[in-house]
Amino acid sequence: MSMLRQGAVTGGLIGLFWAFIIAITVSVTLSFASGLGFRPGSLGCLVLGLGGGLAAVYLRDARMLAGGVILLSVVLMFTPLSPILFGEGVPVFWQVMAALSFGLFMIWPLNIMLVEAHPGAMSRHAFEDAVIRFLTGFGYIVFTAVVLIPFYVMVMTSLKSQQALLRNPLDFSIELSRGWDLFRSYAELFGQFNFGSYLWTSFYVSVLTVLITLLFSVPGAYAVARLRFRGRAAFSRSILLIYMVPMIVLALPIYIAFSMTGLRNTIPGLLMIYPVTTIPVALYMLQGYFRGLPGEVEEAGLMDGLSRLQVIWKITLPLSLPAMVSVSLYVFMIAWNEFLLAFMLLDDPSKFTLTRGVAMLNSSEIPRQHLMAGAVIATLPIMALFLGLERFMTKGLTAGSVKG
Amino acid sequence: MTHPTPPSTRGALERREARLAWSLLLPTIAIVSLVIVLPLLAIFWISFKPVGLADLRPVAPVVRESLRERSGAMVIEYRVRNSSQQKEIVGMGFTDTLHDGVTLGALPEECAVDGGLLRCTFGDVEGGFNERIRIPVTLDGDSDTLEEIVEGSAPSGYGTGDNILTNSEFTLDNFARIFDGDEFWSVLWATTFYTVFGTIGALVVGLFAALLLNKSFRGKGVLRGLYLFPYVSPIIAVAFTWVTLLDPFSGSLNALLIQMGVTDSPINFFGQRPLALIMVTVFEIWRYFPLSFLFILARMQSIDTDMYEAADMDGASPFQKFWYLSLPMLLGILSVLFLLRFIWTFNKFDDIFLLTGGNAGTRTLTVNVYEQAFAISNIGAGAAVAVVIFATLLLFSFFFFKYISQEEGL
User: When you count CB atoms within 10 A of the terminal residue's CB, does the N or C end of chain A come out lower?
Assistant: First the structure.
């Protein structure tokens, strides 16, 4: 342990790891951006990482260090010691870009990580700080990449043509010369595959689900939160119990019942089931919020001659508007994203919801970019809602996430 | 002097409050029992029934009517058949309304006219029963319009077939089938692996993400929103994106790996045996880490900073602060999250179904319900798997309530 805490060892190791991480990141990013061949070069990473780490410990002039490393990585680029290796036919411009970004993103954070490092034995505090900074940098890169790459691929694939995809699956650069033709997949989805109608179906099914859910859960939540009655505790617990029943267990009997009564393949049938899957969540979230409201205001209302229902309508609901927004958003999201029931209960393409419509695109006869365009169409509205109302959405997610 | 005592019986006000509470809860209770409790009972019933997908269409008489010319004379022809080839229908027959302008001639022995209503009865008929009834008619008016009128009103058939779902035939075959042999063990293994590692993975990754964002810096809000993307987007979109990204033939990831020299030939991530199960678990972690991240971050931000200042004064190192201060404070939320996520991962169906369809050793219990009921068309066996799931869940929820009720707020 004390060996590790020597400034030179800490600096060298962190520099080494960081150089590899940055080399991989730069290669992956540039590959995805240009479709050309980039890969990390072990020898170059070894030399530059170790050297950079040691230099950061011994040489305290940050500007000189940065300039040196960036210059070195550009120079080394033309030797086998390059930290980034290139496939055939990579233009010099991209090579210089790769070397420059490697040098910059390698030395700049490294300097910050090793700010407390010095030659000789370091204190435990300084050592752990350096390690934590390294892990933090690593974490940011990994999380951002892992979350972003699938969405990047989703959007970019939807803009490609079939031939371009088959030629080079790595090339996600946008051919701006195609102009409006870029959005051909979308045009075909809305034109030939009826996605406009699916979008509308999904929208009104989700909105109606929200309304029905609120209609049922607001009185229920109020009763559980405010009124005293025998079996209240048992009731709150059984709400939670309902969360635990998996949909697939219910889907089978519902499928049978709907097949026999002719409710399968109808939107009203779907609207009978969707709210019930969300009522327990909504009830649970709302009763938590109602409990937090001051009871005195309601009692004052009662004293002034309002009935309980009027109290709910005139006092409790206006006070709990933020919670209602959160719950509505959360329920909307569940209904919009729902796949299993729509998949099992809807067969008639004229009644599909959006998720069911996208599932239909998953066949070998329909090109991939159509599937991805469908995925983008399904994702965009919920993303817009999420980004626009993130505060409420996050609250809803936190309060309701007993449901998965 | 008597001391005032609390009332021993329930007062009128209290009773009225309870009555109001129940009336407010009644709609919810009613609809929930209709859509959740009833199906749950039904699934137990079905699991003991030898019922296949084809049995869902009930056995019923099928009657078609046509008005046509036959060797110079007009006849109404009824084609009557039993929809099933095997099962009998008890008391089968049909009725049809007569129209003005159509006068029936000689009736066959099965049929009788009763006040403007034609009624034909066949009694009990075997499976595969198929018969034509021809009744000569005289028309009074234009034959084309009359044909339209006659064929416009459909005759209604009646008769009761034996319904496998409601009769008293029970069997244990469904359970015998699903517990039989290697398949059950492979399903159980996949479920256990997926649930345990998916839950722990999502929790650990979520904890790491929360640690990253538990400080204030510019762009924190953006990153926090970004890290929630996987959870917020529709499952169908992200699952298909992963399938596209990891495709062995045209997937970008394979192209990348080959180009970087990690592998020589494309890897079939979702198609080969141990890897597919690992990949669906990785997907589960990817999709649900935001949830634990959100919870853990919220809890972290409510921890009192005084404690850390005191620890700083005592010379605690960063790792020591995490290990001895943060982690114990987070233990409560971590255990609640573990229990919840455990149950929810166990219940998960969509993810695996969309990624692999339950192939390549990824068939969990929930996917098995679908597989048995719809792929093999054995509804009974699917229901039996569902019963097994439900029983396991009851066991889980016992633990859940035992431990979770100690946690404030959940």
Answer: N
